[in-house]
Amino acid sequence: MNIKHQSRVKSQNGDGLSTMIVYQGGQGEMLELQNAHPIDEGGEFGRLKSSRVYQDSPKIWCCELLYESSGGGEYSSPPGKGYGKKSAQLKGSMLSMPLESHPDYRTCWNYYLAGSPGTSEVPEWWETAENTVISEAEAQKFRWVRSPGECPCDKKGMWHTLKDPVKPGVSSYDAATYSITESARFGTAKAAGRMIANTLNKIGMPNETFGITGGNWKCDDAGVSWSGKYWVATMTWTRSGNDEGWDKDLYEN
């Protein structure tokens, strides 16, 4: 087997580069070569787009391989088309997160500051506090409360609100995140069901994450449907709203 003389052809267009190489030899050799290089295979010249075996003379057969790549030498890597081969789609979405989980959270956002009877000054830490913990000494004069109705009443009298929340009524915020929907074709409903079995509402990992790092993923949707030609199983994975990930005490792995 050798490369046919003057068979190398390299062309360029707006989509990138294409390279054609033609090998020659016996019929059996050329068929083996074709079988050894499946379509979409990556190689030195890019992604294999097509292959062709033909007879060049009574005893000489040829195997023509056509590769394609971008101008920078890169090549596309499409998902597999066979049964059980997963493909994936990525999209952005919004996830409702507790206000307290915001990285810049301040207690004054959604808490009232209550003062004891006779207290009128506002402490310096009112704008910077990140939780409801108050020192024992200052707790004699100040309290964080969810509503004015929670103001305590002691032997000195009824406490009162010194400061209203900066963001009254806000209990959550929208965090930008990603979701990945995986799908695969199957010949039977049972085989499709096996792909999604025991995954719903559990922490896991999609096969393809599109380079997204940090946090973890949870399966928020799964299903099986008939396309008219084959069964399709789908799973949708949602990335956690922050790098801490989905709570493993609440969701199974």
Brief characterization of the structure:
The chain has helices spanning 27-36, 189-196; strands spanning 2-3, 9-13, 16-25, 42-43, 46-55, 61-69, 87-98, 112-115, 142-145, 153-154, 157-158, 160-163, 172-186, 203-204, 217-226, 231-239. The model has no long low-confidence stretch (mean pLDDT 91).
- Helicity level, as a percent range? under 10%
What proportion strand? 35-45%
User: Tally the helices: what do you get?
Assistant: 2
As residue ranges, the low-confidence spans are none
Average pLDDT rating = 91
Q: How far apart lie the N and C ends?
A: 52 Å
In quaternary terms, these chains amount to single chain
> How would you classify the helix and strand content by structural class?
mainly beta
Strands, count: 16
Shape: elongated
Radius of gyration: 32 Å
Structurally, the number of domains stands at 3
Query: H/E element string?
Result: EEEHEEEEEEEEEEHEEE
Biggest sheet: strands, sense, closure? 6 strands, antiparallel
Secondary structure layout:
Elements: E1 2-3, E2 9-13, E3 16-25, H1 27-36, E4 42-43, E5 46-55, E6 61-69, E7 87-98, E8 112-115, E9 142-145, E10 153-154, E11 157-158, E12 160-163, E13 172-186, H2 189-196, E14 203-204, E15 217-226, E16 231-239
Antiparallel strand pairs: 1-3, 2-3, 3-6, 4-5, 5-6, 7-13, 8-9, 8-12, 10-11, 13-16, 14-15, 15-16
